[in-house]
Amino acid sequence: MLTTEDILRLLPHRFPMLLIDRVLELDTEAVSLVAIKNVSHNEPFFTGHFPDRPVMPGVLMIEAMAQAALLCIFGGNHADPGSDFLFAGIEQAKFRRAVVPGDQLRIEVKLIRQRGPLWKVGSTITVDGEAAVEAVLTAYVTAPQNSS
To answer: Which residues are annotated as catalytic?
Structure first.
């Protein structure tokens, strides 16, 4: 498990782009993680995204999955936390149900394979045990460039 302080140390994201509230499980051997995101009416995107029927944007759910993958890789000490973590691909993304205020997202990520700097993870989001989103994400993890 990771504390809030661990999440803030490992992720460069801050409000309103920090989309992980809690990490329930971190398996460093299986390279897998379970995280939670609580969705509330106070989320800034609900002001303009279908304000009469607020629905969490799919792109933000994919971002939450990517942040969980980053926590899994860095929190498990599989890469230097100072490294850059960049999207390289999103495959097989499926949106199964709308996510609305009051929902709690259970985000699960598991390593599929890692070759050099490329990491491929399978990820799912469920709400109350019902599938909401699933995707395969590929990330490029590399040491940050020195700026001179």
So the answer is: 49
